Hints:
Blueprint: H1 4-8, H2 11-32, H3 38-59
Amino acid sequence: MSLTPILDAPLMIQLHIVAATPAVLIGPLMLFRRSRDRVHKYLGYVWAIAMACLAIFGLFIPSVTG
């Protein structure tokens, strides 16, 4: 597996991938952790910010029309 397709992609796609990585990794972890402790709250904020960035960057991904 090579990172070349990601490195050659437009900037918005790269930012989208960077935001998606923590969201995908933290999401399942949060489901299996004990809730209402400090770590859960911190990871929840990180997940929410990552998802917001993911949505915003997704709006600016260039579409291919043809």
